[in-house]
Here is the input.
Amino acid sequence: MAKKADTFINMVIALLVISAVAATTLGYVYEATKGPIAEAKRLKLEKAIAEVVPEFDRIETIMVMPTEGKDSLTFYKAFKGEELVGTAVKTYTEKGYSGRIWIIVGFTDNGKIINYAILEHKETPGLGDKMDPWFKNPEKPKRMVLDKDPAKINLTVSKDGGDIDAITAATITSRAFLDAIDRGHKTFMSNQSNGGN
Here is the structure.
């Protein structure tokens, strides 16, 4: 009986030691990678802003609550000298096939879409990745969202009566992408009409 108790105590001690070493190692790896990961995200965001608005020399950042949704959107107002050349809006949707999709979309002062970039998604590999090129193809005007004013078109997929053709075999992802742009546009225009802070 004493041998069984000793074996059990030894197993518990071994398990506690292994758990402590694993937790310490994980904590160390987290601390060691936290800075590089944050820096990589910052550089990706800066690159995305540069893709969606014309050349600029300074950015003003503001946070704005959307009319719908639970998280704020970030506006990056891009200036060349004193002239506002465009606003990049970091927006999202909860309607993705596999969860939240984050995109950044550039708008002119009057609300036309300049460009967009996908920041983060967990959509089906091979299908969700098509968001980036699909809605930019000038040879396919029924897909194209660039240089369009979402207030003047039906920014939903044609399957739902809208003006935009969905990605083949990825209608849910297409709906989500358009929802994110629509959320960004509505929030941007609402902010413009309220004085643009």
Notes: Residues 2-52 form the longest helix (51 residues). The radius of gyration is 23 Å. The longest strand covers residues 83-96.
